[in-house]
Amino acid sequence: MAPTIAIIGGTSLTTLDTLKITHRETLSTPYGEPSSPLIYGELSGRNVVFLSRHGQHHTLPPHRINYRANLWVLHHIGVEQVLATAAVGGIRADMEPGRLAFPDQIVDYTWGRHSTFFEDNLKEVTHIDFTEPYCSALREKLIQAARDLGMTAHESCAYGATQGPRLETAAEIRRMERDGCDMVGMTGMPEAALARELGLSYAACAVVANWAAGKSSGPITMAEIERNLASGMDRVKLLLAQVIPRLEAV
Ligand code: HPA
Question: Is the pTM for the entire model greater than 0.85?
């Protein structure tokens, strides 16, 4: 049976070793090539499809990701629910590296990305409601699964999406803080909006990889990011294994 659940793997989750892989499929879309082949398999007894957002070998920077092709292909094969993983920098004082967080709001600072399906050959101009950018039912499942596993996770927080690929300046992070952002990442948009345009249920599980610029002394190093993500993504895998069997009823 075709999977109705997709996992989009972000930085540090280019493969999902907990997935019992059955087959792979390379599809192209009216919007171009998705980031990676679709990897089909079984996770916790459910059919799941996995897509690596930055490519199989982590070579696509955030602004070069074909978000439209990624979401379009998942919708095309019959996916209804999308769980996205993401690495973020911590802005709020309690967003320390290593923490998991399930954002419930977004502030979008990205630019120049193809950010909508509703632009060409329209019968009418379309504006989606995006008051609540993430699916609340899916978020609830993530929150409950994390609680049941005894994992500490931030359950209400705003994701600021920056253009990248450079990290931010300290002043940019101060501005984002004033804007109400609790964490910063580079891939949350337009992914979430495109999912909504296609009617997909979409929620994100973020791992705090580092303190955002200016929130700790000294520069942000890739070594620090990689160390925190390695342990964080192990917990994300446990969480996915716990939450996926619960998704039927969403
Ligand atoms: N800024 C933007 N994106 C990120 C960061 C950050 O500090 N850490 C991980 N992804």
Answer: yes
